Structure formats: C-alpha cells, structure tokens
Amino acid sequence: xxxxxxxxxxxxxxxxxxxxxxxxxxxxxxxxxxxxxxxxxxxxxxxxxxxxxxxxxxxxxxxxxxxxxxxxxxxxxxxxxxxxxxxxxxxxxxxxxxxxxxxxxxxxxxxxxxxxxxxxxxxxxxxxxxxxxxxxxxxxxxxxxxxxxxxxxxxxxxxxxxxxxxxxxxxxxxxxxxxxxxxxxxxxxxxxxxxxxxxxxxxxxxxxxxxxxxxxxxxxxxxxxxxxxxxxxxxxxxx
Length: 239
Ligand code: ZN
Ligand code: FE
Description:
CATH architecture: 4-Layer Sandwich
Low-confidence stretches: none
Order of helices and strands: EEEHEHHEEEEEEEEHEHHEHHH
CATH class: Alpha Beta
Number of helices: 9
Oligomer: single chain
Largest sheet: 6 strands, mixed
CATH superfamily: Ribonuclease Z/Hydroxyacylglutathione hydrolase-like
Strand content: 25-35%
Mean pLDDT: 98
Bound molecules: zinc ion, fe (iii) ion
C-alpha cells in the first residue's frame, strides 16, 4: 500500500491509499473533491472508498462529488451516521475493516468531536489521526471533555513507537511556538523545529511524524494526567 499526501483547502491534508497492483485507491478525509480527482487522474487510479475521521466540513467536503463520480463507498463511525454525508459503511470501535490489501483497525477517540475515530493501518504501521493528534499538538476539544481527549491520546500512545502519524492539518510550525514556550529546553523539540522549517521551505509537508517523535516533542502527549492536560489545553486555546 502506497500513501500519497494531498494538500487541500488552506492547511488540510487528505490522504490517498493506493493498491498499486489493482490501481485502486481509498481516500481519507477528502476536504474537497478537486485535488483528489486530479491526483486520481494523474496516477490513473479508481477510487473505491472514502473514509472519514469525523464529520467536520473540512474532512467530508468532497464526499458527495467523489462518491457520485467514482461510485465509491463512504465509511464512517456508526454513532456518527446522522452527520457523515453519504455514509454507506458503518464501522464500530475496535472493528477491523478490510477490503483487498486495505486493512485498518478503527478506534473511537472522542474529544475533538464525540464521534471522532482514527484508522490504524496496522500492516503498514500508519495512523490517520484526523483532528485528534497533530504533530506538536492536538485538536481543540469541541464536543467532548478534556478527560475524553486525554484518554484518546493515551490510546494512541499505546501503539508501536514507529507508528507513522498522518494528521488532518499542516499545523506543525504553528504548534511548535506553544511547545517551545512551555518546554524550552527540550533538545529534540528544537531539532524537530529545524527539520520542520526546512521541509516547509522546500514546499514539503511536515507529515508524517512518528509516535516516538511526538512522545519526545509534543507537549500534549507528554502531559501525565488530565489536570495537566486540561491546563495546557486551556492555555493553548488562548495562546
Ligand atoms: Zn475537525
Ligand atoms: Fe479539521
């Protein structure tokens, strides 16, 4: 399975998962249809599935058009079926969804929204974390509680250290200011920021990160309890 990163809207990432032998593809969180269609056409691929981590417009905006064009099936969390547009396949927490070479475990990780899920492609060790875990940050807690968000991050922390993190937005450099302010002597963080700046200067995404890297540098993953996490989340919301 090959992974292609597609930049969408202002700072969103959609991801194309590719079965190179059969020329099939899955798209994760298509913010908009156009850039996804362009990539599918350039690479001569047929879109089979659309997977959504959560219902926000910048993650599902392309569902309808892509479904209509390719007759693709939309996959989303069963408890969010009322607000994932065009949903066809309902997946549950802890379920393994499989089709051909594509195989992912679904985890319910509430906090940013109540029905947020992530998709863990365990054969490739790739996690699509949506707006829950970002590189050097985490999503705002819109619908859930800080405790739910903290527990969702704890679940992600239990995955293998070499798990590659593919998140929903290019927020890494922006996030680094907050991490640096509260963790200014962290050498790993300082060197990651250098790498991030270099990537961006070359017009490249700062994604994927790895879980190991995030554990060393992401202040939200490093917080040890809900109280500490909540304090950081409040500070960041007003940063
Ligand atoms: Zn969101
Ligand atoms: Fe988003």
